Each structure stands twice: as C-alpha cells, then as structure tokens.
Amino acid sequence: MSVREKYEADLQLLNDRIIELGEFAHRALGRSLEALEGHNIDQSLAIMDEDIKANRLEEEINDQAILLIAKQQPVATDLRRVIVAIKIAADLERIADFAVNIAKSTIRIGNDALVKPIENIDQMYRKTAEMIELVLEAYRDEDIIKAKQIAELDDKVDALYGQTIQELLSVSATNPDKLPQITQLSFICRYLERAADHVTNISENIFYLVKGTRYELNK
After folding, report:
1. How far apart are CA 142 and CA 127, in angstroms?
2. What is the average per-residue pLDDT within 204-208?
3. What is the pLDDT of residues 105-140, one digit of tens each?
4. Chain mean position to CA 195
5. Angle at Cα 102 formed by Cα 53 and Cα 87, nearest 5°?
6. What pTM value is reported for the model?
7. For labelling, which of 78, 97, 167, 203 has a CA lying 20 to 30 Å from the CA of 156?
8. DSSP state, residue 219
9. Residue pLDDT, tens place only, 134-189
10. Number of H helices, E strands in the chain
C-alpha cells in the first residue's frame, strides 16, 4: 500500500467514526424525547449510562486525527479535512450531551402529568433530527447545498423555541404550582435549540472543508 493509499484508508476510518458518533447522537436525542413523552425513567437512566460511548468515540476520533497528522503530515486540504473532523466530533458529542440533559429533566419531571401538550417540543426535536440526518449526508458527500439547507431548518427551530417559551411563560402565570415542571420543559427547549446550533456549526465546517473559506450560516 502506497503512502497515499494508507492516508486515504486512515481518513476513511476517521470519517466512519464521525458517522458512527453522529448516528449515536441522533438515536440518543430521539430516545430522550420518547422517554419524555412516556415519562420513562428507566429509559432516561439508560440514556445517561450509554453516554460514555459518545465520549469514547470522540476520544478515539481525536486520537486517530492526531496520529494521522503525526504520521502523514497532511497539508492544505488534507490537513483541513482532519482538523474539521476533530471539530465535528466535538459538536456531535455535545449533541449527545443534550440528550442526557433531556433525560435528566425527564427524571425531574417524574410521573406528573404535563401542564400542556408538547407538540412544539416534538416539532423542535423533529426539525433537529432532520438537521442531524442532513448534516451527516452533507459530511459524507461533502455537499454544501445540503449544508445550506441545515441553516434554513435552524431558523425554524429558533422560531419554535421562541414560540414555545412564550407559551410556557403563559402557562406558568396561571399554574404557579407547576413552575418546577415548566422550568424543566423550558430547559428541554433550550437543549434542543442548542443541539440545532451545534448542527449548524457542523454545516459551517463542511463549508470550510469544501470551500476553504469560513461562512457564518446562522447570522
């Protein structure tokens, strides 16, 4: 195997780990919303326990990237590709952390009936999940058109976030005894909004990878 072929093989391994971490974060976020809707404490605890896998994957990606730089000494686009992989891994690991935060909020809410239906929260999750699916495709294909679509979806998540927080504030005015639960639901909205922001960060890094120029997509 030539030096270039070895580099390509190592890089493909790095990309595969990124996709694996992204799919893990995607599943964890979905399961955290299922647990919220079903008041499922056991599932919430499982999400917290399994987060160690996201941490381990991020560490492995970082180790692989450092080793690849040390052994292959890539430059220009090749070096950019490795650096972007490290940044994307950090964003994906953070999204998995938000799934854990949602699980913790679900445990704090417990079995109390929700003060209002959570359609907006569910919509925020669905948009964010769509963004994660799209960004993994964009990364795999180095597709900046898909990366730009992600920024447009982030705007919709932001709008839903503002609307939902306003609704929760209205509910708190007439249900002061439910303030602890309303606070947790507000936190969950914030976690989803931040998860969507991290997906947008990833799409910006895909732009940088492909174009070599930095773009801020969520101005």
Report:
1. 21
2. 93
3. 999 999 988 888 789 999 999 999 999 999 999 999
4. 5
5. 50
6. 0.94
7. 97
8. -
9. 999 999 999 989 888 898 899 999 999 999 999 999 998 898 899 999 999 999 99
10. 6, 0
CB-based burial label for 77 (10 Å; 0-12, 13-18, 19+): exposed
Please check whether residue 136 is in contact with residue 22, taking contact to mean a CB–CB distance below 8 angstroms.
yes
Q: Which residues of 99-108 are buried (b: 16+ CB within 10 A; e: fewer)?
A: bbbbbbbbbe
Question: In the numeric block, which tokens belong to residue 167?
Answer: 């609704």
Query: ∠109-21-3 over CA atoms, to 5°?
Result: 165
Helix axes 76-109, 179-211, angle to 10 degrees: 170
User: Token digits for 125?
Assistant: 């999750």
Q: What span, in angstroms and rounded, lies between the C-alpha atoms of 50 and 54?
A: 8
For 17, 103, 140, the CA distances from 81, given in Å and listed in that order, are: 14, 33, 12
Q: In this structure, what token pair is assigned to residue 116?
A: 């209002």
Cα(first)–Cα(last) distance of the chain, in Å? Answer: 45
- pLDDT at residue 20, as a whole number: 97
C-beta neighbour count of 208 within 10 angstroms: 16
Q: Give the containing element (helix H, strand E) for 149.
A: helix 144-174
By C-alpha distance, which of 18, 21, 141 is closest to 68? 18
> Which residues have a Cβ under 8 Å from the Cβ of 132 and sit 6 or more positions away?
22, 25, 26, 29, 95, 199
